[in-house]
Amino acid sequence: MAASSAFHRRGFGRACWIVFAAMVFQLGCSDAAPEPPETFEAKGTVLRTDGTPFSGGLIEFQATTGQPVTINSVINDDGSFALETMIEGHRISGALPGTYQAVIMPALGNQIEQQEQEVEPIVYSKPIEVKASGVNEFVIEVE
Fold it and tell me: Do both 24 and 61 map to the same domain?
């Protein structure tokens, strides 16, 4: 009976280690990054008041309420843009629903021009609403 008792103790000890290892593994997995919030397609065009495309630069949507979040896009040569949201170091296509103010940073020329002139951001005066349903397509007119 002594031999079978030792066997059971060894089996019990091994089972304890397996349970302990499973618990540690589960704890390690529970620290996984949370699921990113849902974003929604948001795109548009930046036009000058004369109807010509505002080409080049960057457009940023700044939240007017809630947590600050980085939502921006490069403005293409035809004035078009498609927003992306930066969440925990990852760029995700689309934008979070909410109310935003658009800020446009015009493209800079070469290095010499950059040193000679400062380019001011253009702040779009109307609030922009990104919705969780429907089409989020914007036309932003600037001078």
Answer: no
Which residues sit opposite 58 in a β-bridge?
Answer: 74, 105
Q: Which helix (H) or strand (E) holds 61?
A: strand 58-63
Which structural domain range is residue 8 located in? 1-32
Residue 37, in any domain of the structure = no
pLDDT band at 108 (very low <50, low <70, confident <90, very high): confident
pLDDT given for residue 7 in this prediction: 47
What tokens appear for 18 in the block?
């397996």
Q: Which pTM value belongs to this model?
A: 0.71
Dist CA 20 CA 25 (whole Å): 9
Contact 56, 24 (CB under 8 A): no
Mark whether 78 and 13 lie in a shared domain: no
pLDDT tens-digit profile of 5-58? Answer: 554 555 545 554 555 555 545 544 555 667 878 999 999 999 999 999 999 999
Q: Do 77 and 22 sit in the same domain of this protein?
A: no
Q: How many CA atoms lie within 13 A of 109 on its CB side?
A: 7
CATH number of the domain where residue 125 is located: 2.60.40
